Amino acid sequence: MADRPWVVVPCYNEAERLDEQGFQPLFDVADVLFVDDGSTDTTLGLLQGMAARHPHARVLALERNHGKAGAVRAGLQHAMAEGAEVVGYLDADLATSAPEAVRLLDTLRSTGAHAVFGARVRLLGRPIERPHLRHWLGRSFATAASLILRMPVYDTQCGAKWFRADPTLQAALATPFRARWAFDVELCGRLLVPTPGVEPWPVDAFIEVPLKAWTEVEGSKVTRRAFARAGIDLVVIAAALARRRAR
Predict the structure, then answer these.
(1) Rounded to an integer, what distance in angstroms lies between the CA atom of residue 3 and that of residue 24?
(2) CATH number of the domain bearing residue 43
(3) Domain limits at 116?
(4) What CA–CA distance (Å, rounded) separates 130 from 136?
(5) How many structural domains does the chain have?
(6) C-alpha neighbours within 13 Å on the C-beta side of residue 196
(7) Pairing of strands 57-62, 214-215
(8) Is the distance from CB of 33 to CB of 58 less than 8 angstroms?
(9) What is the DSSP track for 42-78?
(10) pTM of the model
(11) Is residue 1 a part of any domain in this protein?
(12) pLDDT, tens digit, for every residue of 201-227?
């Protein structure tokens, strides 16, 4: 239904980590599009079973592995083609819980923002559980991303985001992401500095919401090597933004 938001959940070999009950708060308010990214285990069968049990669970099966960036892009495009007016994405491991994702959605609706991102801010009384090295690598990455985007974003890589579906977002998704790991930064760049003839989103149209809880889930595919590759992604993104700003 077009009046329900759609949230994309990219899945690659998630059979051991899928928590069907954990998604229930999202099933209650949104259409949840699970994108199977060419999994080689039983993930696709589990997702199809989930879709058979929940009217608001949907499955998009990709024939080969595209990586998270490609899976998210395919899912968002599919949701917008179905008429969704609000779209988002969420990691399959529910490190950001479904209730937290719903809270972010409520913020988008209540503020009129174009985009709402979860932010893993370590505050007293909020259990944001990340290994110390991952935390400090993430802070360094976020600082670099903020400088490149010219936007004071705290956490570009939190896997919980919502967007209003409009022509600017459609244009931002028109071509595949060049970044495999830092595609969130590339997407923000395309929204802030779009191709000629497309209306840009202003910086104040983005809102970050500190999460009340976030937990590192065992089996995460983000490694130190991935952080290094994400650094290379930032260089590519910075160059592309510089070219578009020069036009």
Answers:
(1) 19
(2) 3.90.550.10
(3) 6-245
(4) 10
(5) 1
(6) 4
(7) unpaired
(8) yes
(9) SHHHHHHHHHHH-TTEEEEEESS--HHHHHHHHHHHH
(10) 0.92
(11) no
(12) 999 999 999 999 988 776 555 556 666
